[in-house]
Amino acid sequence: MASNFFDHTATIAYEGPDSTSPLAYRFYDKDRMVMGKRMEDHMRFAVCYWHSFTWPGGDPFGGETFNRPWMHGDDALSLAKQKADVAFEMFRILDVPFFSFHDVDVAPEGASLSESNDNLKAITDIFAQKMESAKVRLLWGTANLFSNRRYMAGAATNPDPDVFAYAVGQVKAAIDATHRLGGANYVCWGGREGYETLLNTDMAKELDQLGRFLSMLVDYKHKIGFSGPILIEPKPKEPTKHQYDFDASTVIGFLRKYDLVNDVKLNLEQNHAILAGHSFDHEVKVAYANDLFGSLDINRGDDLLGWDTDQFAMDVKEIALVFHEMLKHGGFSTGGLNFDAKIRRQSIDPDDLLIAHVASMDACARGLLAAEKMLAEEALTKPLAERYAGWDKPENQAILKGETSFEQVAERALGLNPQPRSGRQEYLEGVVNRYV
Fold first, then answer.
1. How far apart are CA 212 and CA 404, in angstroms?
2. Which of 3, 31, 240, 340 is 20 to 30 A from 210, alpha carbon to alpha carbon?
3. Active site residues per annotation
4. Is the full-model pTM beyond 0.90?
């Protein structure tokens, strides 16, 4: 059913680079072939439920600015159904292939876990019915284990085992809903799995709890036949001072310790990468280097603010470098570009939601096309291969394969006088600028 929420109701179409309409795609041509795959299949865009339909427009210093009609009233389940109508209307208008959600974004929390689960099942029924006639599919689902006060000291890492058990029950319901709706992945974000002070924290114990929690989830995933990966989303801090999923490298070490690398991969986000002191493409490269790349939250932070602003991604150069790495490895399998992004609290018109997604989808498309061209012309890959070409020689390959001893390499060094070569950083930065 139509929601009558948006002024613009027609499905947004590709009009080409000369279009000046904010509600037309200028670069995102979903059927355009890029390296043997449709652009839509490369991008796998997903609208996230929480920022688009649940966030009221508040910030630490001010309250609600959006005044959405489904945010006020006494019948919480009816309001959730109204919100679902608006959401699926937006999915249709944007013509996106996927969406994503937290459990409490789509269904109201009840007075008990049983009541909350019943509410989630009711909305899952509605989603399933709507998806029968809609194009959109579920990229991933997840459970919110950080907003309710019961999780103020964490969920899986909580010192109270009853909170741990409650979190298990909540996640079971969320992955059941995800599985029923054909979700391609299931995401875990440890928003409060960390600490505010070490004075009251047994870190080793909490990490063991978290490892056990995820191991149980992986076992259950196999039991119900959920074929997609479990994804962990790294973030260094905020709301905690230190979170155990600090960055990609930290999570990878954790997964290896608890023998989870076969079933759990990484869901990476630009804003979280920056907060960890890394670039977005750094985190993507780390994931690929360890065969644990899964999916991406596509957004950006504000360079002048040291917190998670979740703005819509607009930096074509940054996106191009990420896609350059992804295309080298074949791109997404089960993952996609999830818009974990929110419009600014002053963007109060309903159509601002549409405009923000369109602009960011175009920025991503421009980044993809720039990456395709850089790869086709070997703009970055050729200089990189030349820099490491010495390692392709048989005697140096023998070192990497373990066929040469430490003493043999040291003996060889006695006859060498290697001289440094330029890293050509400025040249390469100029190369990238030619494409974006």
1. 41
2. 340
3. 102, 105
4. yes
